[in-house]
Amino acid sequence: MNLNKQIFKNSGTYLGIDVGSTTVKLALFKDNELIYHSYNRHLSMIKSKVLEELKKIKPLIEDDDVYISFSGSSGLGVANELGLPFVQEVFATSELVKTLEKDTNVVVELGGEDAKVIFFDNGTDERMNGTCAGGTGAFIDQMSTLMNVNTAELDELSLKSEKIYPIASRCGVFAKTDIQPLLNQGARKEDIAASIYQAIVNQTISGLAQGRKIEGKVMFLGGPLHFLKGLRRQFKETLNLDDEHAIFPEYAPISVAIGSAIFASKQRSHYKINELIEKVKSIDTSKKVTNTLEPLFVDEKEYEEFCVRHSKATVEEIDVKNYTGKAYLGIDCGSTTTKLVLLSEDDKILYSYYSSNKGNPVEIIKEQLETIYSIIEDKIQIAGSVVTGYGEELIKKAFSVDEGFVETLAHYTAAKHFNPNVDYILDIGGQDIKCFKIRKNSIDSINLNEACSSGCGSFIETFAKSLGYDIKEFSTLGIFAKKPVDLGSRCTVFMNSSVKQAQKDGADVGDISAGLSISVVKNAIYKVIREASASALGKNIIVQGGTFLNDSVLRAFERELGRNVIRPVISGLMGAFGCALRAKNLGIEKSTIISYDDLKRFTHTSKMVRCNGCGNHCNLTINLFNDGNRFISGNQCEKGASLGETHADMLQIPNMFKYKRDKFEALFKTERIEGRKTIGIPMSLGMYELAVFWKTLFEELGFNTELSGFTTKKLYAKGQYTIPSDTVCYPAKVMHGHIIELLERKVDAIFYPSLTYNVDEKIGDNNYNCPVVAYYSELLRSNLDELKEVEYLYPYLNINSAKELEKGLYKSLSKIAKIDKKQLKKAIKTAQIAYEKWKFDIRYEGKKALEFAKETGRYALILAGRPYHIDPEISHGIDKLVTSLGFVVLSEDSVSNLAQAKNLNVLNQWTFHARMYNAAKFASENDGVELVQLVSFGCGIDAITSDEMRSIMENDNKLYTQIKIDEITNLGAVKIRLRSLKGVLDERKKNEL
Amino acid sequence: MKERKMNYKVIDGVAYDEHGDALFLEENKKDYTLLVPTMLPIHFALLKQMLKEFGYSVELLESKGMEVAQTGLKYVHNDTCYPATLVIGQLMDAVLSGKYDTHKIALVISQTGGGCRASNYLFLLKKALKKAGLSYIPVLSFNFSGLDTQPGFRFTIPQFYNLAKCLLYGDLLMLLKNQCLPYEVNKGEADRLVQFWVEKLSNEFKDKKNLKYKHVKANFEPIVESFSKIELNVVPKPKVGIVGEIFVKYSPLGNNDLEDFLYREGAEVYVPGLLDFMLYCIYNNVIDYDFYGMKKIKAVVSKLIYKFLLKKEQDIIDAVKKSGKFVPPSLFDDTIKSRKGYISKGVKMGEGWLLTAEMIELVERGFGNIICTQPFGCLPNHIVGKGMMKEIRERNPEANIIAIDYDASASKINQENRIKLMLSNAKEKLLENKED
Fold first, then answer.
1. Are A429 and A456 a contacting pair, CB within 8 Å?
2. I need a labelling partner for A881 at 20 to 30 A (CA). Which of A607, A802, A890, B3 fits?
3. What are the start-end ranges of the H helices in A482-573?
4. CATH for A424-565, options being 2.130.10.130, 3.30.420.40, 3.20.20.210, 1.10.150.120
């Protein structure tokens, strides 16, 4: 490598060592020449790797005075311990740029777990990713594992992409929930690969640039940006950079090491290489980890007892050769694994299969069916087949399976086989955590993990791989770990950092493995189940799912609960086993499943199209099979899938979300009268409550109005680069786009009032808005420079007093026009009536919907959220999904006047949330009315409300379901939740009869 | 808001109100111990003593480490803000430790009131106790808004005033300590002096005469003087200001010993005082009237109290100025003004405009290196913290601000790495200035 530049003023020997989260980089200069450089993964063995490198360079600089500096997140600990110089890595990078490429405007640097952007104009401005941001090298590693390719192959794939899917760009877990269904639906791997890169680009722009544009000469540094051509391409395209302005230096992977060498050259102390080697040798790698936990097993004997105990929960297997007669097939096509069970008439297992679906479940099931057919020959007939899991519909269609079964019920069916008195089932799979409480032979409550806390099986697996172990080896190391590390119990991104810290402190792999198992368990108990004690779970607990095959996880769970549980030997197969039992209960003679002959001819191809059925424009995956059958997925409603009866029925089922949306659609239509000033109203957050009020008011006063309309992805992207806080809720983030949209539509002023207090409906202890709704106006002013182009009005108003409102509005509106006080007073009155009428209409329509539900014997389902959740881009068409399942959809504000929640265990002080409590109360008091709470990711208030909503519902023996929504567009997980709810309701009804 | 009527039921010797909440009665004062999570060590030591004078027996909780957060996660919804996790975790840890007779303790938790989640901490604590089957332990709310008062935990106006005096002393001691510690020639001297004063003042509280403001004020100068006698070696060090959500800003438990880390990294630390937060809370009542025409009487009274306390703050400033050796705190009236043109006074949830104002004031006062501490996902902080940084940086190029999230699982290494970046820039600037 030739740097073509004189870097140092003096000749000398300068060594920079960059120890990052996953790699060690060295740059060694002697007399202004780069005489050695390297880039190696350290697999957590930092000391030996550094030592190895130092020994390698020893002959090159035997007698020199070496000036040295460390850098990088793991370099900090080394430098501190040895008393050697350390330079923070971002700082090192800017040193490098200032020396080597003076005319650079911006540096984008991606590392293993860090992402940085440095702006050089007007003083250096450095940004690093926050704690909740995984769009980095480690993220790419995780995603490749998920796609079952290595990072180089992922890159190859991405270069052949044709289209980009929206993938949540916030963190790895989110992206994963987007990618998994795409894989399951059969989207092209090439396109997914490029979409993953695009997610990283978006993350960098929105999460790091935060309002500063990345333009001019941009230098890209760090390993991933050096090695991955597809990633480079995505950056160049998105940032609109030509070759002259996008710089990818050859030294990118070792840039921080070079920066450290520059920093080293400014130090006073120097060392001989032997001295350095001795110093590094002296690093104490004996345990320093302070946060350690009890070992999982005291000794081998305890472990043996444990194994014996668990081997008792078993299902008998018989050799398929010795069996003739009917058999039942259960298929569980999960998010990451595919499971099959073939069951005999007397519930014995004839054949089973468990494997990662390698991103292509159709192919795997085809192979498996071939295998099954080849071994059962003619003496066994498949008399019934049932499929469950993420890929349920696809597989059902592809292979003509008899029935699709709701996942939760499949697991319950299986669990009952092991213990008819089961009280609690906990299933930790590759991506999902599912818990069901059983009461009176029926599922009483269901908890599923949120998109943000998927600390599940695939997480441990990915981690094992990144440390260079396979999962079996990794979990075995955990079983006998002496001092498991306490890694906390939150989302995987946080755990990554905790592991990094533990490695730095010298924890060994076994301790980390055991620690991860304990974390997964704690996450399940405290975050998903939300119980503080074991007694709440009941006596008979069954655990299952692939993750519990890991003995460390099982043991950690028993430890945490202080109680023994049952893990069926076929823990990983329970879904498929339940399906097989179900298939037996179907009571049919011959399965419709694809015949052996047809199977041989079976082919499967998929292509992507964009649906034009409605404004959502979903990306559809069309799966084509050789018999002409096709299966469409990716659609948010049933419209794309079929234009048949389902859709027609759906249209007739009342949907308050749709009703409200239509009402807004009409409100958005405005006409401009020449000569009048136009006031723009950005449509998100509180505007979904008061838009009608403001529009009426302004029009009464002789202004034109312009409403920004519903959010679209495109509109969101327009303002994305100005968002300063990447953990704020999505409805707030889209506000930036709405402002830009209004500016593009040429308005004279933009109006977004600051409302500390919301409308006082006298249903709570107070009537606040949440801090974000109340004051986002301030943030917009300070972060959107474009707002200076117009008059931005964000007055603090008292919406509950006509007099105060008049005062505030007069002052504010006088900035753009002469306001007549009398006219203003009248306009306020008119606007108030319009607003009251608006609310009346919603309640009136809500009542009608309830009556419809009663008359037609349908369930009414309240989608309880905030008014702004009706925005189709915020709720992603969940309401349509709900109607397609046959529910009547109500909104929280259409029923919040019908009941009054009392004696709450929380301070009921926010208007929108008080409505939700009332809606929950109403649902809990009325048969046939159910409730699902919509929670925006990042909504801190809902951390308070969700527990309370749950307790209101469960006090009256009702099911509580929560759906977390964000930028995510895929409804796979949501569908499972809603179908489970429906399944349980139907079952309960059946039991009552 | 729940109205507390004085008719209550007694079950097993514990009084309950009509909602089933355990009550803390006047008579419980004599044999109950109040458990209080420590936020600011100096201030709280003084407050403890003052409460003792009021007839309460108080124990300050100072436990640290992972267990606290783990217990918190067990009892509080995991998406709730970190301070709730910690404070409730600390209290539950103590309650469950077996160290106390659970029938003879009451738990104290602060409540800010207003539209922030923090108003709900009290309720979350009650839920936690319920979960643990300990609902008979009374929960006492410490707030300035008259929320949820307990019959045996009410303060008269003179008592409130006496508590405020503890804050005055506390702020002064903290300020002086922060300015001496990084430069002291004999290590540990400043800390020892703080201990001396806490002990001396605590003893003084026993005599009512000493609680008269005249006496308190007369103490300011000797305190300043005693610190000015500490031998210092003033070499240029980066000056770092800490702002943020009240708990993680002050509490070593909340911010992973941030101040200590900064000292070790060779920085001088400036933390705005607790009195400012109190004044901010009081001033917000004035804003409700000014902005929305609400609660006139409350506003008028608040304004009087505000003016009254402001004078006391001025006394501290005068005493510090007189020494000529230390940088005095700024008058709250000036703090209010400093936010002008950045953010409205109307932003009053959580730390609200005060946080923005403190950042700007720090920059203007030469503490351009700022750490903005916040619990992960803190709602008001999106706006008043991260939301204002772009503009503050643009208008004050010398501002070197970094936002640090605190959370049960946020790793210290990530936090420290980011702080190091800020410090590297600060140190470089220091060098540049030296060369000029």
1. yes
2. A607
3. 492-504, 509-522, 551-561
4. 3.30.420.40
Measured in angstroms, the CA of A769 and the nearest CA of chain B are apart by 7
Q: What CATH number labels A110-241?
A: 3.30.420.40
Euclidean distance between CA atoms A910 and A741, whole angstroms: 30
Select the highest-mean-pLDDT range: A156-160, A987-991, B113-117. A156-160
For the entire predicted model, the pTM comes to: 0.86
Q: Which of residues 79-138 of B touch A (CB under 8 A)?
A: 79-81, 114-117, 119-120, 122-124, 126-128, 130-132
pLDDT tens per residue across span A58-76? 999 999 999 999 998 888 8
Mean pLDDT rounded to a whole number for chain A: 87
Residue ranges of chain A that CATH labels 3.30.420.40: 13-101+257-281, 110-241, 320-419+578-601, 424-565
Q: In what order do the strands lie in the sheet with A704-707?
A: A704-707, A678-681, A749-751, A791-793
The DSSP-derived string for A906-920 is S---BHHHHHHHHHH
Task: Say if the Cβ atoms of A778 and B387 lie within 8 Å.
Answer: yes
Nearest by CB: B417 against A73, A125, A808: A73
More confident residue, B409 or A378: A378
Residues of A in contact with B69 (CB under 8 A): 488
One-letter identity of residue A325: G
- Cα separation, A978 vs A64, whole angstroms: 70
Neighbours of B304 (CB within 10 A): 11
Helices (H), A547-655: 551-561, 574-585, 596-601, 645-652
The CATH label, of 3.60.20.10, 3.90.1150.10, 3.40.50.2300, 3.40.50.11900, for the domain at A843-992 is: 3.40.50.11900
Say which range, A78-87, A173-182, A689-698, A841-850, has the weakest mean pLDDT. Answer: A173-182
- Residue pair A125/A91 in contact by the 8 Å Cβ criterion: no
- Residue A640 pLDDT class (50, 70, 90 cuts): very low
pLDDT of residue A494: 61
Across A768-797, average pLDDT: 96
Question: Cα torsion at A566, A568, A569, A570 (round to 10°)?
Answer: -150
Q: What is the mean pLDDT of residues A38-54?
A: 87
What residues of chain B, 272 to 331, have a C-beta less than 8 Å from chain A?
291-294
Per-domain residue ranges for chain B?
9-30+63-154
**How far is it, in rounded angstroms, from Cα B25 to Cα A75?**
57
According to CATH, the topology of domain A320-419+578-601 is: Nucleotidyltransferase; domain 5 (3.30.420)
Which CATH number is correct for A13-101+257-281, 3.40.718.10, 3.30.420.40, 3.40.33.10, 3.40.50.300?
A: 3.30.420.40
